[in-house]
Amino acid sequence: MSGTGPREAIFPTRMALTNTKGRLKGAQTGHSLLAKKRDALTTRFRAILKKVDEAKRKMGRVMQLASFSLAEVTYATGDISYQVQESVKTASFKVKAKQDNVSGVLLPSFEVERDPNGSDFNLTGLGRGGQQIQKSKEVYAKAVETLVELASLQTAFTILDEVIRATNRRVNAIEHVVIPKLENTIKYVISELDEMDREEFFRHVSLKKVQGKKKRDAAAALALEEKRALEIGSTGDVADAEGTGEAAPNMLQEKDEDIIF
Asked: What is the pLDDT of residues 183-203, one digit of tens each?
């Protein structure tokens, strides 16, 4: 029997067939859209993965330089952490967040905004080590920018990874479960409708045969009744003639006056 396999339990009617075909068309359209979304997200995911690798390598180099510069400052001027904490009043770096839309997925993106009016503790190291302090400040500023960039890429990477997995599950579910189930349901309904059409055709042919036989039987019965009626009518005329008692005329015994023998 066609339509074997997982299918929906529906009554095989033409309306159900039309509705199931519409659902199958919608499932195929949704599968196509989700596949395109998955491809777009995968492309963006690979690009972000490449940027994450580059940002991590860059972060390693920058932090290495920052550590060396801080060691130079400590060697030249000693511990200046308390001087920096006293001179800082406002933040020199501010992080702004925005969202990028990638195929309906909102990815957070962080940007660093450097405030030129912020406290740069320019007087720190005025006596000695000013050049090393300025160099260390620039290196750490670059490290902060790289760190924010890496955080933005890593966050987008994590979100895209989860969304791609969910999209793959949906695509596989539609491709391997929903669409085959609807196709099997359509095959089942079509086979049942064809069987019903064959039964209806056979019933119609059988009914025509029965009606034709009834018509022939009725015509034969009518002809037999008419024949019997004619026989009964002729028998009645003979009986009437016998009942009057008159003999039938004999033409041989009658004499014609015009004939002379």
From this structure: 999 998 988 888 888 888 888
